[in-house]
Fold:
Amino acid sequence: MISGKIHSWESMGLVDGPGIRTVVFLQGCRLRCLYCHNPDTWAKEGGTLETVDEVMARLRRFRPYYGTEGGVTFSGGEPLLQREFLTEILSRCRQEGIHTCLDTAGCGAGGYEEILKNTDLVLFDIKHYTEEGYRRITGRSPEESLHFLSLVQEMGIPLWLRHVVVPGLTDNEEHLEGLWSYIQTLRGVQRVELLPYHTLGVHKYARMQIPYPLKDVPPQDAEALTRWQERMNPHKPCKENKEENQ
Ligand code: SF4
Structure:
């Protein structure tokens, strides 16, 4: 039986996809985003081993809360790294009619067609829209994530895009204008979420004894993003846009 390495669970998530969702955070990530607030998910060792059957049993228990919109979101870390587990669990969710989201930066271990064929929605984290900016933020080449993103579009899977806005790094008008131009070239985008940078994960760096790369950067003011948030989501009411980013 295939098992996954699970970092943690959130049983009633409201922000990672539509409706009420169970969020399963998978262990392991190869990126090193400057602003990552979950460095404890990076190592591929660690996490708790749970079989596909065990995870499905938990999802069935939460199912009454999902209603017509909710379901399960696989997040991380980077869920795509656990290729076999993800392929199997997504297929089982599809068989049982549970709506699935992948919360991903697209830097996994291949096998994306198999994974995506049973995925209902992709929450894709755009780290940056230029190669240089992507490398600066993540420490890696954008090639893998661009490959993943093209497959999502080719397969016609709906996309929700996310982008973390960091003061002094990705908050200036020129950058946001460039981001918006890039987003307009993508197919299947249903919404865009600008996520204000926060410092809630900083204590984890101290505990893990690793230097925090953005130690002098203040949190991003969410209000300052309202105009862009509205511009990037022309069909959604402003109130909703604002509340979701708090
Ligand atoms: S992709 Fe996510 S988990 Fe991985 S380093 Fe970046 S922010 Fe952290």
